[in-house]
Amino acid sequence: MPRRTDISSVLVIGSGPIVIGQAAEFDYSGTQACRVLRAEGLRVILVNSNPATIMTDPEMADATYVEPITPEVVEAIIAKEKPDALLATLGGQTALNTAIALHEQGVLERHGVELIGADVAAIQLGEDREKFKGVVARCGAESARSHVCHTMDEVLAAAGDLGYPVVVRPSFTMGGLGSGFAYDEADLRRIAGQGLHHSPTTEVLLEESILGWKEYELELMRDRADNVVVVCSIENFDPMGVHTGDSITVAPAMTLTDREYQRLRDIGIAVIREVGVDTGGCNIQFAVNPADGRVIVIEMNPRVSRSSALASKATGFPIAKIAAKLAVGYTLDEIPNDITRVTPASFEPTLDYVVVKVPRFAFEKFPAADPTLTTTMKSVGEAMALGRNFTEALQKALRSVERRGASFTWVGEPGDLAELLEVVRRPTDTRLQLVVQAIRAGATPEQLFESTRIDPWFLDQLFLLDEIAREVRDAEQITPGLLRRAKRHGFSDVQIGELRAMPEDVVRGVRHALGVRPVYKTVDTCAAEFAATTPYHYSSYDEEDETRPREKPAIVILGSGPNRIGQGVEFDYSCVHASFALADAGFETVMVNCNPETVSTDYDTSDRLYFEPLTLEDVLEVVHAEQRCGPVAGVVVQLGGQTPLGLAARLKAAGVPVIGTSPEAIHLAEERGAFGRVLAEAGLPAPKHGTAVSFAEARDIAAGIGYPVLVRPSYVLGGRGMQIVYDEGSLAEYMATATEVSADRPVLVDRFLDDAIEIDVDALFDGHEMYLGGVMEHIEEAGIHSGDSACVLPPPTLGRGELARVRTSTEAIARGVGVRGLLNVQFALAADILYVLEANPRASRTVPFVSKATGVPLAKAAARIMAGATIAELRAEGMLPASGDGGALPPEAPTSVKEAVLPFARFRTADGQVVDSLLGPEMRSTGEVMGIDVDFPTAFGKSQTAAYGGLPTAGTAFISVADRDKRAMVLPVKRLADLGFRLLATEGTAETLRRNGISSTVVRKHSAGSVDGEPTIVGRILAGEVDLVVNTPSGNQARADGYEIRAATTAVGKPIVTTVQQLAAAVQAPRLAAAPPRRLRGVVV
Amino acid sequence: MSAAGAVLVLEDGRTFRGEAYGAVGETVGEAVFSTGMTGYQETLTDPSYHRQVVVMTAPHVGNTGVNDEDEESARIWVAGYVVRDPARVPSNWRSRRTLDAELAAQGVVGISGVDTRALTRHLRERGAMRVGVFSGEAAQRPAADLLEAVRSAPAMTGADLAGEVTTAEVYTVPAQGERRFTVAAVDLGIKSMTPQRMAERGIEVRVLPATATLEQVLTAGADGGAPDGVFFSNGPGDPSAATHEIEVLQGVLARRIPFFGICYGNQLLGRALGFGTYKLKYGHRGINQPVMDRATGKVEVTAHNHGFAVDAPLDGPSDTPFGRAVVSHVGLNDDVVEGLRCLDVPAFSVQYHPEAAAGPHDAGYLFDRFTDLMAGADPATTTGGTAAGDGPGAGSGAGTGAATSTDDTPKGA
Ligand SMILES: Nc1ncnc2c1ncn2[C@@H]1O[C@H](COP(=O)(O)OP(=O)(O)O)[C@@H](O)[C@H]1O
Ligand SMILES: Nc1ncnc2c1ncn2[C@@H]1O[C@H](COP(=O)(O)OP(=O)(O)O)[C@@H](O)[C@H]1O
Ligand SMILES: [Mg+2]
Ligand SMILES: [Mg+2]
């Protein structure tokens, strides 16, 4: 069946901000969809509130709306653009839920818009856990026993029947939000309570626990002719009980016989048909009892999911792209397989390699959070690796996640066996490493299986690694054979160095001398049955290399690795842009990255893709391989965030041509002392500071510059381990617990600037001229990490003079450091002094936001500058505006607001409390949204709606602010009152308000406890009586009250304002209804 | 684990080194690669692999061990086995032995640690060829000797191997439930799942040796009468060499007895109808092959294992001594003829494996077509089973009802 002719325009809904459980993979799938639909000659209309996405690049769609993804907004867009169809299966749960809402409100019908991909009936059958169980039964398969409950009473009754532990899960949530194991009634009341809250249908499912069973996933696709293929099978290394998003997963399935696999396949196909996913992809999860093979269907996602992105990268079968083609009417047999070109997509990929995905967690950022892995997804990103066997892929994946201690180590004492066997019972982000330590400590496979339920085959692979490690350690000398054997099982030069007590580079030297080097194989979907045309490579220590020679000079772009807090999809955006720009400029682009969620690892983004870890060893080998293929003009380390930047010096030392800002210049900006000198020369002030490696040193410095001080380890991104310290006591504490302190990694102590306006700048510099990309004024004051603070462009309150100082200071730094490409500078304006907080000689988190806000492709320009172009040339070419820049926007330019999205609701302390939602100098947000409109209030309003549904416009507001904020609070609170809010306040705050003529009701503090029935504020919040909470942390005393208030607010999911600046901005934001969606201006490309 | 060394030598001189796997010794055969990621036990015991050295493209082999249910015949047939990473510890609730031990016990010489992808690419480019695997002592011999040993081995083309794999005596696989039909199945290398699939549909299967005469076939029915249908199985070898079987088949067609053929059986129907057969460059061996059923326009993902194919015009009925015949199924990867159907006599066949062991169950409906044919319905109008909602089903209700119900039934033969 050819493409439908009755559809000429399609509205695509994106997935909004990056949140846990819904990350960059939806930019990847959405981008593929938009490309395909446009290639089909369809008019594509796109809505997505996330600026840090390739899909929102204006050239990806005919009409792009960076607007909140709410039914109201989408309806307005539909009314304006009149699309024929709506494609919602590529934008994750957000898009799916929005589409359902639009359907239920009759919007789609009213505007004659057809939902393509999956219809509402199918979506509901798939997503509604109760209905889905019916489907499973009709397919002759089994589901876990369960009861659907709408009230707490029903919940308790159900638990009585199912017995503990019992699984609680809300319907229509993604990433398992609000779900968990209840081991007793207390757990149950807590988890189910939140579950009922989180479910848009206030419905939770109580389910029989099948902890410890094997877990599998199948990715399927169906076309309108009812052809179905299974794209990929995935086996979870961690048994049932750990969310697949948090599990180490392996493709293809490793421990199924054909009969068992075909049974899953049969069920999967029957289910996709029964659910009626008419075209497109879906993901089905199974549990298999290791004792007797009994199969239970866990769930299905009738849409492109996180796993489909993984499956696409794992197999080379582009699920999203094909789903989009199917949605407009093609059948699988009509779509060619991109990679072989000669065979059709109506087949099932077969792999001759093994793929391992390892999740990346961020528990270090939430010290209070319980790192136990459960049914609620907690990881913030993932890394994938390919190898010719499991051990090679696993060890590559472990070094790809860039977590200290992730790679297996055989140094030091393994620890006590009995203890280890006990701790590995509980799945955590470090269980795998502990299992290997247990093996070192003498555990038997049986003991480990008993404690972990990890499949014996997987366990044996870990035993194999341990045996090889011993061989390497105990060998008289390293023979080529032994070295090759270690390499075939994924041991890095670093690990071998550890085992032989040699430096990494010596091992590498020996290895190269012995001619032991990786070859590069190709991902071809067909295990070499047909020739592949796409250079999508992975390394392996095997015999035959498949890279092809080339004529054109290549530029190698190093990506940013797994998403993590502080280094997210923004950096992938810049890498992808560089790839596009450099290809246009006539280079052959080579991408190196290991993050399966991203656009950069799509095999048709760059001319060549190496799916490899971003460690020195792996990058050196890729560069070596490419140098054999043809000339390599340079390696770009500036766009992938701190990961590649950290490699710059060592790459250069190894003779790799690093282009753009030189490693020496990078050092000038990154090393405190050197940077201090750069500033001094330019006569620019920085907060008083010093560096310390001991408490004594730190104490003296702090005494010298005065408290509060800001302390942090050097060479960090996202404010890792950063704290505001108010006195010597807490300083001592910090130094004691500070991570990674050593002579070459000292602790930085800064004077903390109070009441300072923070300013973020992104600029381009070519050695002569500077192009100021944009100046962003933060809404939260300095002290709240730039990544967590909302910011505004152009700056609403900065004067001409201040802007001029920002410009000259930025240029002075660019010159002083010797930047070639992008530079990010953070300033703090306090008492009319413009302090320089830091300079990042690389693309920053805000580059995509600035590019979207000003319509100038900064990352593309940066890439060109690194490759030798000047700003003047780029202006002439039209890539940059002929005159002016982002620091001097015309008055009629719109205002853009970036708001951060925070994951607090996901984390629980060991005893089940939510973690505190306070902002600070350590970044905690997972993603961002953008609001753009004529003026600040409107744009801010949009950003708030996009981030969390928006502030209430009426109702009850509770105010409790620290003394330092009492003055600043008065006006905004007055405005709240004028807006008609009913005000509750704690005594002190109420007092101030009263004196300023604002009446409020005093409420009991939590610490005061509730007396004769009168609830405390916490009680009222939990009871849902409060619509808006304003609570700013007071000084440095233990803030029990504040914490309880914020925790309660997070628990009931009400908006909370924790800074006075945020409140001031908030009360300016009018009703969203007043602000119609506006099309994003086309970017100059 | 310093296993004995082993070496693999191809007819064109390319050599790969590795470790001994399974039995230690030497073996020579035709090098073919199989791309299935599951089902090595079924593959090893598939008689069609007789005299072939099978290269597994899936790197990990042996993970689920060997059980007592999944073999497709009484023994391992492959002449040699080439893998990259054999399992050290099998893991599956049905596993009884390790694959390594099973190969050794059955004297199957293998080699592990080989860059099987490089080898596969080589075979893809140069075509299937003879290969030798030498381990232990044998591996120490001079390269020239080894190459000579490989080159002096008989080639596959022109070989009539059915005789070497077929059953010695007639045996019967009883119908499950009430018997609807009796079928004479000529064993040219039959897989146990095939009678199984028929039995599930109420067919009693009389399995006859490849040497069975037309007379014997015609009297194989219930109490000595004519069978309701005749079936020709898959099997090894070159169809052009099977003159006897072809004559028998022509006799069956002449008597308008419903006929169904699989794989080798499809090639024989082709030759019986006067079409040619030819050797593919490197064959189809895998369980992910898209085939279009031209009667329904639907694509099925199917299990393949064939080195030869029928040479028939893809479009339009062709005239044959038995009336008009059409190509009913086509392989979408390379347009190879994957099925034939006669319009004037009740006969059809497919080149691939609807019994699917190993492999997807999409094509199970073909067994229903066979029963329909015996029931007198015209094969063209029956597709057996509708898509949605009839049990965990790939293509067809019956086909997959069966698929799931057979999960623990012991092998037929
Ligand atoms: N009945 C159960 N018993 C034990 N673990 C379960 C059960 N159901 C689900 N899980 C675990 O919880 C995880 C999340 O459940 P799932 O249904 O996939 O929700 P989500 O929609 O968040 O993916 C699964 O990956 C699985 O590991
Ligand atoms: N001296 C200071 N006074 C007040 N706030 C500061 C100071 N230095 C840094 N900060 C705050 O800490 C945040 C993180 O510091 P920064 O140097 O930008 O580290 P990172 O490299 O993590 O971005 C900044 O965004 C700013 O809000
Ligand atoms: Mg799931
Ligand atoms: Mg910063």
TrEMBL record, chain B:
Domain of life: Bacteria
SUPFAM superfamilies named in the record: Carbamoyl phosphate synthetase, small subunit N-terminal domain, Class I glutamine amidotransferase-like
Keyword set, alphabetical order: Amino-acid biosynthesis, Arginine biosynthesis, ATP-binding, Glutamine amidotransferase, Ligase, Nucleotide-binding, Pyrimidine biosynthesis
Biased composition (Gly residues): 386-400
Catalytic activity: L-glutamine + H2O = L-glutamate + NH4(+); hydrogencarbonate + L-glutamine + 2 ATP + H2O = carbamoyl phosphate + L-glutamate + 2 ADP + phosphate + 2 H(+)
Active site: C263, H353, E355
InterPro entries: Anth_synth/Amidotransfase (IPR050472), CarbamoylP_synth_ssu (IPR006274), CarbamoylP_synth_ssu_N (IPR002474), CarbP_synth_ssu_N_sf (IPR036480), Class_I_gatase-like (IPR029062), CPSase_GATase1 (IPR035686), GATASE (IPR017926)
Enzyme class: ligase
Region listing for Disordered, in residue ranges: 381-413
Binding residue positions for L-glutamine: S48, G235, G237, Q267, N305, G307, F308
SMART domains, per the entry: CPSase_sm_chain
Known EC number: 6.3.5.5
Record's signal peptide: none
Residue span, Carbamoyl-phosphate synthase small subunit N-terminal domain: 4-134
Pathway(s) where this gene product acts: Amino-acid biosynthesis; L-arginine biosynthesis; carbamoyl phosphate from bicarbonate: step 1/1; Pyrimidine metabolism; UMP biosynthesis via de novo pathway; (S)-dihydroorotate from bicarbonate: step 1/3
Coiled coil: none
Region (CPSase): 1-179
Similarity-based family: Belongs to the CarA family.
Functional note: Small subunit of the glutamine-dependent carbamoyl phosphate synthetase (CPSase). CPSase catalyzes the formation of carbamoyl phosphate from the ammonia moiety of glutamine, carbonate, and phosphate donated by ATP, constituting the first step of 2 biosynthetic pathways, one leading to arginine and/or urea and the other to pyrimidine nucleotides. The small subunit (glutamine amidotransferase) binds and cleaves glutamine to supply the large subunit with the substrate ammonia.
PANTHER family cross-referenced by the UniProt entry: CARBAMOYL-PHOSPHATE SYNTHASE SMALL CHAIN (PTHR43418:SF7), MULTIFUNCTIONAL TRYPTOPHAN BIOSYNTHESIS PROTEIN-RELATED (PTHR43418)
Subunit structure: Composed of two chains; the small (or glutamine) chain promotes the hydrolysis of glutamine to ammonia, which is used by the large (or ammonia) chain to synthesize carbamoyl phosphate. Tetramer of heterodimers (alpha,beta)4.
Protein name: Carbamoyl phosphate synthase small chain
Protein source organism: Kineococcus glutinatus
